[in-house]
Design a protein that fits this description.
Layout lengths: L2 H25 L5 H6 L6 H28 L2 H31 L6 H8 L6 H33 L3 H49 L3 H9 L10 E2 L2 E2 L2 H8 L9 H9 L6 H29 L12 H9 L2 H39 L5 H22 L7 H25 L5 H19 L11 H18 L5 H13 L2
Antiparallel strand pairs: 1-2
Helix pairs in contact: 1-7, 1-13, 3-4, 3-6, 3-7, 3-10, 3-11, 3-13, 3-15, 4-9, 4-10, 4-11, 5-6, 6-7, 6-13, 6-14, 6-15, 6-16, 7-11, 7-13, 7-14, 8-11, 12-13, 13-14, 15-16, 15-17, 16-17
Length: 495
């Protein structure tokens, strides 16, 4: 092992030790499930904002998106980023405050399935059961993408076999998630979000000046073809309406992402949301710009072009070429941070969904808080194990895994969250119909190819869920009086 490898390794060890330490520090603060899953609704605006965005972006931001930009230019990557930017803003603007207030009013719900159950007065708990099934399916896939990111990073930097690299990343993520719960996850996400932010900014600036400034950078990248920086051209063919619509449609996913929505639920006061929104939008705008830039400019910047199948390591290669060993190691931890900050959140949300909505909701309604915590930790381990098996193949595309899971959540929960918050007439039957139809549509559509089926599955899934939920609710005469009274109280309590 040469000296540079030792320095990078030291940076990684230091970073991982800090993450585990935070988990240990917060372990004693988890006295009940509300503490473990929502931090007791005491999270401040800065931590809420950075935790939400860090948990949102995953290894996809620093590997998947730049990889697409490096491979095909600005077409799919650019429009996807635009869609996500719009979706982020609309989610913070329209969903954050109402969801924070309504979940507190609705039986102090601490999970999305629990909120839907309480909102629609579903005494059978069928909605929560179906919700948990979809959460476990799609979060397992999503978590696998983060595991793949960790594996590819450690493999690329240290030459460790991918399988061993995968085990190292998983071990650290599971350790601090199991120990510290939501407070640990938010604290680590805050650090990880900050690290990701500065890594993207500083690397972008250095690449520009190394290539001779903005104008010279543009000239050099343009040598790879005029279509490379043109968001309307794809491999010398038009990037058509279906392509653009599919990419922009990523923004729809935000309304149904449980690991993002719980950040809104956990903030200490709805008065903090405006500041959180501003912080989040600055972060996400600069992060997207940096990721797109590095992915596209690396064509001209890297001394050695990336091999086929290695495109998703473009940020890794750029950092290794740019910085001295230890500094490079610190910034490479930003990629590790991106993967970890999403995986820990998803594991926690999936665990909360099972332990609260299945175990306490169906299996043991009188379960003690400590027992629920124990079940949640076991659930984290099981989901982590399944995600591990899904991530064993090093040829897995991070972008593709995230795309599928993102569509699943956006189509399954997005319309229901919006209807729950803004339409008094939504009924239990309507919600359940939409929930099932949205999730199934995504799963089926994903298997079909060609023509209209090239449209990103979140679009038909979202529309089917919304349409069926509305139609069934309109024809449903069984509208619970307590549900309507509670909705009116929620509306009247709004500022």
């Amino acid at each position: 092992m040469n000296f540079e490898i030792i320095l990078r390794f030291s940076a990684f060890v230091l970073y991982l030790m800090i993450m585990v330490f935070i988990g240990l520090k917060h372990m004693s603060k988890n006295n009940n499930s509300s503490d473990f899953f929502l931090g007791g609704r005491k999270i401040g605006p800065w931590m809420t904002a950075l935790s939400a965005e860090a948990s949102d972006m995953s290894g996809w931001l620093l590997m998947g998106l730049p990889g697409v930009a490096y491979l095909t230019g600005q077409k799919e990557a650019f429009w996807t980023a635009v869609g996500l930017e719009i979706g982020t803003y609309l989610n913070w603007l329209f969903v954050a405050k109402p969801l924070r207030n309504y979940t507190a009013l609705c039986g102090n719900a601490i999970t999305i399935p629990q909120f839907l159950t309480n909102r629609f007065k579903d005494k059978s708990h069928v909605i929560s059961f179906v919700s948990v099934i979809f959460i476990l399916i799609f979060f397992t896939v999503y978590t696998a993408s983060s595991f793949v990111s960790c594996g590819k990073l450690i493999n690329s930097v240290f030459g460790v076999p991918y399988f061993i690299a995968l085990l190292i990343g998983i071990a650290v993520i599971l350790t601090y998630t199991l120990l510290g719960g939501f407070l640990a996850v938010c604290s680590t996400d805050f650090i990880q979000g900050t690290l990701m932010f500065f890594a993207l900014i500083i690397t972008t600036i250095i690449m520009i000046f190394t290539l001779g400034g903005p104008a010279e950078t543009f000239t050099k990248v343009s040598t790879f073809g005029s279509q490379f920086l043109n968001p309307f051209v794809k491999d010398n063919t038009n990037f058509g309406l279906i392509d653009i619509a599919s990419s922009l449609a990523w923004g729809l996913g935000y309304f149904g992402m449980p690991h993002i929505l719980v950040r809104f639920m956990s903030i200490r006061s709805d008065k903090d949301i405006k500041l959180s929104r501003r912080i989040a939008m600055v972060w996400v705008t600069i992060a997207f710009m940096g990721a797109l830039f590095i992915g596209a400019v690396a064509k001209a910047y890297l001394a050695v072009p990336l091999e086929e199948g290695k495109q998703e390591t473009v940020v890794i290669a750029s950092i290794l070429q740019t910085y001295p060993a230890f500094i490079g190691g610190i910034f490479l931890c930003a990629i590790l941070a991106a993967a970890m900050s999403t995986a820990d959140s998803q594991l926690l949300v999936a665990a909360s969904a099972f332990s609260e909505d299945v175990y306490r909701g169906f299996m043991n309604k009188e379960a003690e808080p400590k027992k629920v915590l124990q079940i949640s930790r076991i659930t984290v381990l099981i989901i982590g194990l399944v995600a591990f098996f899904l991530s064993i193949d090093p040829n897995n595309s991070i972008f593709s895994l995230v795309s599928y899971a993102w569509a699943g959540f956006g189509a399954t929960f997005g319309p229901l969250i919006l209807l729950s918050l803004f339409w008094r007439g939504t009924t239990k039957s309507g919600a359940l119909s939409g929930l099932v139809a949205g999730g199934v549509t995504v799963i089926v559509w994903h298997q079909l190819k060609g023509g209209i089926f090239d449209l990103y599955e979140i679009v038909p899934g979202f529309l089917v869920c919304l349409l069926l939920a509305v139609v069934v609710s309109l024809f449903d005469k069984d509208k619970d009086s307590q549900m309507l009274k509670e909705f009116d109280a929620y509306k009247n309590s709004k500022d």
